[in-house]
Amino acid sequence: MSYRSCRPEDFDAFVTRHENSLFRAALAMTGNVSDAEDILQETFMRAYEKAPEFASDKHERAWLMKPEEIYDILKEIGVSL
């Protein structure tokens, strides 16, 4: 079941499913573990808020890995590349 149901256990499964690949992407972009962890946290918070907008699991993964989203988060947390 997708986390779009907004049940906490479904969101936990969603995070577990995507956290490693998202962390690796964020770390590759920043070269900094702390910044990558901040990106990971902020991205999952945004994903939870956008849950009803996702049409499928494939759509949610595409959104998570979207570089523009990560760059926006970097700007917000004050990191420049």
How would you describe the overall organization of this protein?
This protein is mainly α and 81 residues long. It has one domain (3-76): Rna Polymerase Sigma Factor, Chain: A (Orthogonal Bundle). Helices cover 73% and strands 0% of the residues. It is built from four helices and no strands. The protein has helices at 8-30, 33-50, 57-64, 67-76. Helix 2 (33-50) crosses helix 4 (67-76). The chain is globular. The chain starts with 7 loop residues before the first helix and ends in a 5-residue tail after the last helix.
List the helices and strands and how they pair.
Blueprint lengths: L7 H23 L2 H18 L6 H8 L2 H10 L5
Helix pairs in contact: 1-2, 2-4
Which keywords apply here?
Rna Polymerase Sigma Factor, Chain: A, mainly alpha, about 80 residues, 4 helices
Classify the fold: give the CATH topology: Rna Polymerase Sigma Factor, Chain: A
Counting H and I runs of at least 4 residues, what is the number of helices?
4
> Whole-number radius of gyration?
12 Å
Distance between the termini: 37 Å
Unreliable stretches (pLDDT < 50, length at least 5) are none
Fraction of residues in helix? over 70%
What amount of the residues lies in strands?
Answer: under 5%
Shape: globular
Briefly characterize the structure.
By secondary structure, this protein is mainly α.
